[in-house]
Fold this sequence. Notes:
One of its GO terms (biological process) is phosphoenolpyruvate-dependent sugar phosphotransferase system. The protein is α+β, with helices and mostly antiparallel strands. It has one domain: Histidine-containing Protein, Chain: A (2-Layer Sandwich). The chain is built from three helices and four strands. It has a four-stranded antiparallel β-sheet, with helices on one face. A hairpin with a 5-residue loop joins β2 and β3. α1 runs antiparallel to α3 (72-84). The mean pLDDT is 93.
Amino acid sequence: MTSSRTVRVGSSHGLHARPAKLFAQAAKEAGIPVTIAKDAGKAVNAASILSVISLGIDFGDHVVLTADGDDAEHVLDMLTELLTTDHDEDA
């Protein structure tokens, strides 16, 4: 089952190295294919930190997450929470 969701990025400095690493690690551990795209751009593998950073996602940008598998909704819930949290507050 494929599910997708549009999410507004909450990290005040966007998806730079640390939040991108947290996000990519969680996507990888999800065990199902997950992609992320900035606005209407090309979707990339969400488990690849380099691909995620290459999108140049900033605070307030909208991204589209797509997950394909039996647990897709749960995975999207978890990844949405990561993206909407400001990981730069305590940095």
